[in-house]
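Table S2 (continued). Query chain:
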Amino acid sequence: MYDILMIQLDITTLIFFYILFSVMVTLGVWAFLGYKGLRRVQPKDEQYIWKCSVCFHDYIDSRHEDISACPMCGSYNKKDRRV
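Corresponding output:
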């Protein structure tokens, strides 16, 4: 009775489905993180936008006025008042 419901798979088919599933999960995570990175919050005032002088990362910091730490590399940046 249970022989009719049993699905027979050989090792190559199992390996194929394992690799296919792994690639699909990897591409899904990569696409999700890529899309998440595209969503940027635009500040209301440009005085809160900082650019790191070491790694050139743009970030927002509204708590500090003169010196701020970059969230990517941790270096301290001074606000350029010439702008």
